[in-house]
Amino acid sequence: MTPADLSMTVLRAVRRAVDENALRAPVPARVRVERTRPGGRGDYASAVALQLAGPAALSARDVAEILRERVAGTPGIGRVEITGPGFLNFTLDASADAFATLMARVREQGPRYGHGDALAGDLLRCSHASEVRAAVTADVVGGLVRSQGARAHIGCDGVPDPDWARLGITVEAEEPFPAKIRPVPAGATAGELLRRLGPDATRWGLLRPAGHDRAPLGDDLLVQGEGNALFLVRYAHARVHALTRGAALLGVTSEPGEEPGGDEAGALLTLLADHPAALLAAARHRAPDRLARHLEAVARAFLDFHDAASPLPVGDEKPSAAHRSRLALAEAAGTVLAGGLSLLGISAPEHL
User: Fold this and answer.
1) Which parts of the chain have pLDDT scores under 50?
2) Among 163, 240, 170, which Cα is nearest to 197's?
3) pLDDT digits (tens, 9 = 90+) for 137-155
4) CA–CA gap between residue 35 and residue 53 (Å, rounded)
């Protein structure tokens, strides 16, 4: 179960409680769930009961109990607890069924895994300065909000730079809009950056830092080593494809049976389940850096998982159900990396 699935599950519980007259309160447009903070219980928590307590004329704990009864037992949710004044805490089911469901969703949706309709009906009308970092940021922000069902109309406050086309940017309108995208300027033109770094490293260098921070655009963006986050992300993606090629030669097919054990597999699974929420947060906050950091975390988690337990037989090992499950998890990581890089406008090569 993904965070988006969990949010919808709790929202359905609210609607059911209202329909059954167990809760007299307006149904919110959406329910927010967040990762449990250090020291908290479960995997996710929601303060929706505190939000509804006033309108319902009940204590938050009473509201939480009404919702808990209607959420408990939902496939994918292992345990629901009430803590503090009325927080709902959810522990997700780590069973083989939950693992298979997540793998099936990633496989079915492919690189569009995490796209949704949470922002359906919204219209983003914003413009950016005639400057390369603003132009690249606006381009990606437009793609992010569209991935969540919104419409976007992006304008430019000045004269577009012809070199932006080499970065895959098409200026939709040469007109200002009230909403502005104004990251710290790059301090160099698109042409200068392209000559030195090429399009992929240029886009990553401009997008990876938060908009209020200066973008480091040194030659280290071209280094093929673990210290270069762009290389790490693309290397992890290429490594997944190498595994797929190796599996084909060995006759091993991916099959999400039992969940791969180990802390490394668990960490990777958590990040893959969080991917839809990461995309939605990046879209809502107009912050491509959130997506870039998420992809970096997925890449590191995948490489840790790969090193801890190979998805392919080693030496005299025979292919087993464990190998097939690990391969399914690896392929899901590659799908997430490919989809995220595509939204950032960066290529995801199968060979490095």
Assistant:
1) none
2) 163
3) 999 999 999 999 999 999 9
4) 22
Amino acid sitting at position 346: I
Q: What is the pLDDT of residue 72?
A: 82
Please give the span between the terminal C-alpha atoms of the chain, in angstroms, as a whole number. 33
Do 231 and 335 fall within a single domain?
yes
Q: Identify any residues that bridge with 154 across adjacent strands, giving them in sequence order.
A: 126
**What DSSP assignment string belongs to 43-64?**
SEEE-HHHHHHHHHTS-HHHHH
| Backbone phi and psi for residue 46, each to the nearest 5 degrees, phi listed first | -140, 140
Say if residues 261 and 156 touch (Cβ distance below 8 Å).
no
Distance CA 144, CA 344 (A): 9
Same domain, 239 and 331: yes
What are the tens digits of pLDDT across the range 167-223? Answer: 999 887 667 788 899 999 999 999 999 999 999 999 999 999 999 999 999 999 999
Same domain flag for 75 and 148: no
Q: Can you tell me whether residue 6 is helix, strand or coil?
A: helix
Helix (H) or strand (E) holding 35: strand 34-35
How many whole angstroms separate alpha carbon 283 and alpha carbon 178?
18
Give residue 43's domain range. Answer: 3-93
Residues 249 and 331 in one domain: yes
Q: What is the pTM of this model?
A: 0.79
**Can you read off the two tokens belonging to residue 345?**
């406008």
Asked whether 188 and 216 are in contact (CB, 8 A), the reply is no
